Amino acid sequence: MKKIIATMLTVAMLACPITAYAAEATEETAATENTAESPVAGKKIAYIMYMTPATIFQMWSDSFTKTAESLGMEADTFFCNDSADTWKSTIEQCAQGGYDGLMVSHGGQEYAWDFLSGILEKYPDLKIATFDTPFKDANGEVAKIDGVVQFFQQDAGFAATLVEEILSMYPEKVEAGEAVNILQVQQGAGYNSPFDRRQVGYQPYEDEGKIKTVERIAPIDDQNATSSMRDVTAATLPKYGEGEIDGIWCCYDAYAQGVYQALVEAGSDIPMVSVDISNEDIQFMQEGKNWKACATTNWTYNGEFACRVLALEMADQYDDIKAASCYYEDPGMWMEIPSSVITQEQVTSKEGITIENVGEVADASYLDKTWMPTCDWMDAILGPLA
């Protein structure tokens, strides 16, 4: 019966317009001596990503796969090309096809709770962990699913550290208690959960008078966010005189790329900072102009972290998940990946810096792993975190 289901799954996936990256064992991961000590050895898991395979998500996938293989598991990755229907059908197919655990990413808050609850009712032995996937019930209230750990990037931390970066550029104003003027690139409340959480980190600085938001701008065309943001920024800059904008704070790097292009085209020297990172962002910072910093997480570590969480769920070791420093008792079953800042100074300090090797020049926090969940058998197989 299992063979029939597996065959059906394979056929279904070939017919489905998704990109699948089968796990390819390397010598390093295949030759793990301690897999017999792993309670999840022999299990089959998948990383199912709503979006397309951008560099950071491929870094996640590679690390997720490597960690899984080290623990004696088989891992696959499926990218769903920004289609909610494909995301749902892929999860359904994997559950039907006998996968033991699913790491699902970027599901929409308007459908994720209801859909995943239904999946687990049909497949009660399946384990699911989620990334950037808020749960809300039919009434729009925050909801939970028993046994499902949700985790996110430390979005409020991103926002706060970037405000601090801008404040550090104006020590005289800060010392005098004068507000620093910021052009904020941010969607309004309710656009999506990560942006809302970033506003939580930004807002206290305005409430305390440390910053003044001169204006909030966002793309007019969400389907072409970068080019739209370039046009919106180009139209906004002439409204302000010299010194009326001290810095530009961007909630998302796709928006920031358009902002940067507009600043360069206008010959402006206004500094800017942004959330998230890509090789294009690093290249722009390396030009030595306006783009001063990106707040991000370590995307290679994100994949390992995701696999650790899912493996501990599958081993029914929730206490070890809760023992991690990044776990939040309130609201519970909730974790946040710590943020780091990558600066223009860092990425220009050495030739050939890309997102893949930025750890060579980043602060120590970027390479810190002590916040991840672990246990005795994980330490024995993967090595201690510290």
Largest sheet: 8 strands, mixed
Task: Return residue spans where pLDDT drops below 50 for at least 5 consecutive residues.
Answer: 1-36
The end-to-end span amounts to 45 Å
Strand adjacency order, main sheet: 1-3-2-4-5-6-13-12
Strand tally, please?
14
Radius of gyration: 22 Å
The SSE order reads HEHEHEHEHEEHHEHEHEHEHEHHEEEHHH
What proportion strand? Answer: 15-25%
Summarize the structure.
By secondary structure, the protein is of the alpha/beta class.
Task: Give short descriptive properties of this protein.
8-stranded mixed β-sheet; 386 residues; 16 helices; single chain; disordered N terminus; 6-stranded mixed β-sheet; alpha/beta
Protein architecture, described:
By secondary structure, this protein is α/β, with parallel strands linked by helices. Helices cover 42% and strands 18% of the residues. It contains 16 helices and 14 strands. It has an 8-stranded mixed sheet with strand order 1-3-2-4-5-6-13-12, with helices on both faces. The protein has a 6-stranded mixed sheet with strand order 8-7-9-10-11-14, with helices on both faces. A hairpin with a 5-residue loop joins strand 12 (327-328) and strand 13. Helix 1 (2-15) runs antiparallel to helix 4 (84-96) and helix 9 (225-236) packs across helix 10. 42% of the residues are buried.
SSE map:
Blueprint (H helix, E strand, L loop, with lengths): L1 H14 L3 E4 L4 H4 L13 E6 L5 H16 L3 E6 L4 H13 L4 E5 L6 H11 L4 E5 L17 E5 L1 H14 L2 H6 L3 E6 L7 H15 L3 E7 L7 H12 L10 E4 L2 H14 L5 E4 L3 H8 L4 E6 L2 H16 L3 H5 L4 E2 L5 E4 L2 E4 H4 L16 H4 L8 H7 L4
Parallel strand pairs: 2-3, 2-4, 4-5, 5-6, 6-13, 7-8, 7-9, 9-10, 10-11
Antiparallel strand pairs: 1-3, 11-14, 12-13
